[in-house]
User: Fold this.
Amino acid sequence: MMLTATLLSALAAGPTTAAPALTRSVPGALTLTRTRTLAGLRAVQVTGSPVGDLVAVSLESGEVRLIDANTGQTRRSLLGHPQPVYGAAFSSDGKTLITGDDSARIWIWNVATGQKIREMPREKGHQRGIQAIEILSGGRFATVGKDDTVRVWNIAGGHPIQTILGNGANFYGVGQTPSGALVLGTLKEGMRLYGRSTQFSLAAALSLPGGQGANDISVNRAGTLAVTAGRDGIASVWTISSRSRSSFVRAHDDWVIAASFAPSGRVFATSSNDRTIKLWNPQSQPLGRLDDMSAIGSPLAWTGSGKFLIGTDIADQPVIIAVSPAQAPPAPPRPRSRRGR
Assistant:
């Protein structure tokens, strides 16, 4: 039976218990429905394809499963990583997946066939595990390592073309802006921006009040807003162009572990080791809540359609959550018609 958890309810129901929907006065309130729990799987990370409803679920064993969120069925199993995969990113067309594991191995996969295309050389790579990946323009991608470095690579192969040293920043999470700047979460300040001409260089370090820094960062698809997952329990929304904090909320009773913008850009999700997942709008108003989630802080991912949010439950099993209304990406603007003279 499906469990319906309505926004801001304090209900804590098990995966086979139904709870009635409640109406809320918050504009844009959402209804969250646990449609499937992938029982028996223990996930450490989840990554949504920007196209359709495919999600990459990284398991403790090192296996990565490509799962259809509509059916819960595994389409492909990607095997071979000797350690769990904590960093993963799909290409914008959903055809390529890059994975990075806790042994610092980085592999590139063909999503349709499940075949490994290449492995990046390790001689000049990260000295510790990979924790985040972002595919960039120009056939490049960036990896964030537990060695407090960011490395930039060519997808075509070869050694890193640039290494960014954190020097105590402790990088967590990565995104990008339309201009190609890197947006990075840090424990030292909260967020850093690295602009790019020929190479990336530090453009700004933005500090969170309290000095506890961020465990994660998410950038909306437009590249205009970022949300940081604060160790003080606060989720902060930043306007990237002005480099200013536009809103914030004490989102959780413990660390905010993960944050993820929906494809629409109108909603973001946060998780915490307080065993909740919560949804918010960019003004930091609450839109939804799920209880009995992972006690170590659920990983978060949206499918490209915006119909599903993926998290993990109290047993760290992947949970597929239907979101209504769906948070689909904005439609591209129509070209203006030209009238004849």
